[in-house]
């Protein structure tokens, strides 16, 4: 069904990096200080930088990553300029040019930098993204197009090793949620990483499970299912999108398959109905459920653990330093039922 992009590479910048460079005359000069006041130069700042996993990204090697840079480019020349991500490249240590990667659908508000007409004193802000080696050093090259004359390029040094890895953070938060809510296992990282209130999420999970586990011993049965899944089951997680404030992760459960429980209960009901001449079918069904649940803990280990053939997409957003998991979608409700054993 859904195949995402596996996470490789590095993530999340350590802090605000501001580098201002000037391009003067026929040569470009790099500087970590403030740009000079001459009229034939551009001012470039890196406002932030983060390693991300874009939804349109390729599967990368461990030594690679997608680096998204938020730039501010100010026109300090006397003529108009046009600017887009195509005017911004990286140059590696061998002098080879790296073109930027496309940011589709303004993912997580990361709009690509663009300015059709940038007059003197105006600043364009936006993102560029590059596929880089995460331990390499590069030169960022900004070369806007001028309406009436060529514009000198601006260059600044970029060290990819300064950026830390946080693309895995939403996956770890989601794992804590699964442990705490679906598997009823206390996860010490839950309150540190997840916004959702665990008691409310557990109640929502129980509601979905009750839709097919309707009986007087429901709570005990669900707890037994959770314990068995914790012991023998689990899930696989595949990051399809990860930015500093949003993520989408495909979860493929490997949990108990209770499909055969229906046929077992049906057989018990038929046997009870035949053995009791005055019993109604409803009475036979109730008796079968009670008989089944009375030995549920003994029977449960005999049921197979099944890995789903496809996963469900879970969306997360960053709020106040933690991750909020969207548990309202149809995909998530399907995930709830699957973890409760309804995966046929």
Describe the protein in words.
By secondary structure, the chain is an alpha+beta fold. The protein has 2 domains: 141 residues, Sandwich (Immunoglobulin-like), CATH 2.60.40; 127 residues, Nuclear Transport Factor 2, Chain: A (Roll), CATH 3.10.450. 26% of the residues lie in helices and 31% in strands. The strands form 5 sheets. Strands 13, 14, 15, 16 and 17 form a 5-stranded antiparallel β-sheet that branches. Strands 7-6-10-12 form a 4-stranded antiparallel β-sheet, with no helix packed on it. Helix 1 crosses helix 3 and helix 5 crosses helix 6. The longest helix is centred in the C-terminal third of the chain and has 17 residues. The radius of gyration is 28 Å and the shape is elongated. The relative contact order is 0.15. The N terminus is likely disordered.
């Amino acid at each position: 069904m859904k195949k995402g992009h596996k996470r490789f590479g590095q993530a999340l910048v350590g802090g605000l990096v501001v580098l201002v460079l000037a391009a003067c005359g026929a040569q470009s000069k790099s500087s970590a200080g403030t740009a000079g006041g001459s009229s034939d130069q551009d001012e470039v700042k890196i406002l932030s930088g983060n390693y991300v996993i874009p939804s349109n990204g390729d599967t990368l090697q461990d030594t690679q990553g997608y680096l998204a840079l938020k730039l501010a480019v100010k026109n300090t020349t006397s003529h108009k300029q046009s600017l887009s991500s195509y005017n911004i490249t990286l140059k590696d240590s061998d002098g080879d040019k790296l073109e930027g990667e496309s940011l589709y659908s303004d993912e997580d508000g990361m709009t690509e930098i663009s300015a059709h007409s940038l007059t003197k004193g105006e600043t364009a802000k936006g993102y560029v993204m590059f596929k880089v080696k995460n331990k390499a050093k590069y030169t960022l090259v900004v070369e806007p197009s001028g309406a009436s004359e060529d514009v000198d390029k601006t260059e600044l040094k970029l060290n990819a090793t300064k950026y830390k890895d946080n693309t895995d953070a939403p996956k770890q938060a989601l794992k804590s949620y699964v442990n705490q809510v679906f598997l009823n296992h206390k996860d010490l990282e839950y309150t540190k990483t997840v916004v959702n209130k665990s008691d409310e999420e557990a109640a929502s999970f129980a509601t979905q499970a009750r839709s097919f586990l309707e009986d007087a011993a429901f709570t005990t049965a669900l707890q037994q299912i959770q314990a068995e899944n914790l012991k023998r089951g689990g899930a696989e997680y595949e990051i399809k999108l990860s930015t500093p404030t949003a993520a989408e992760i495909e979860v493929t459960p490997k949990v108990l398959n209770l499909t055969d429980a229906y046929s077992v209960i049906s057989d018990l009901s038929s046997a009870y109905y035949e053995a009791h001449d005055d019993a109604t079918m409803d009475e036979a069904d109730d008796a079968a459920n009670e008989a089944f649940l009375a030995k549920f803990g003994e029977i449960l280990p005999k049921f197979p653990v099944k890995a789903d053939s496809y996963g469900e997409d879970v969306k997360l957003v960053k709020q106040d330093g933690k991750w909020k998991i969207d548990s309202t979608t149809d995909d998530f409700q399907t995930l709830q039922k699957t973890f409760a054993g309804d995966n046929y």
